Amino acid sequence: MIEALCTQIAILLRRHLDNPQSEAHSDGAHLGAAQIRSIEDMLDCAGPTPSLAQMAEHCGMSPRHFGRLFRLACGLSVTEFAIKRRVEKAKALLGETAMPIKQVAWECGFQTAGAFSSAFRRATGLQPSAYRNARRM
């Protein structure tokens, strides 16, 4: 079910990004594709997740306005989107590398292995090690 929702979100996001009208910066009523890509880049960096205030400032908006427009554009809160994106990256790393789980956690932006394990389990229903073992079979 989660993968189906993620696929649907990816499709909607791709449609939004492919829309030529969305290439301009925000007019204050919506987030432009360039702004969404910029936020994705911020979220893809290893280390702690940027705060809502940092992302809003990056886009030249108040945190409240940014959060509302982000949810309208992506269908998820900034936090939900960040966790989904980082768990997807973790799934790829767990399935394709022998990287230690603690390192996967850090590479995906989680500050501790415990926080990573909890978020991963909530999103997939499996512990990271169980997911890795299932992918190897």
Automatic annotation (TrEMBL):
InterPro entries named in the record: AraC_XylS_family_regulators, Homeodomain-like_sf, HTH_AraC, Tscrpt_reg_AraC-type_HTH
Coiled-coil intervals: none
Keywords (A to Z) from UniProt: DNA-binding, Transcription, Transcription regulation
Signal peptide span: none
One of the record's GO molecular function terms: sequence-specific DNA binding
Residue stretches making up the HTH araC/xylS-type domain: 33-134
SUPFAM superfamilies xref list: Homeodomain-like
Protein name, entry field: HTH araC/xylS-type domain-containing protein
Higher taxonomy: Bacteria, Pseudomonadati, Pseudomonadota, Alphaproteobacteria, Sphingomonadales
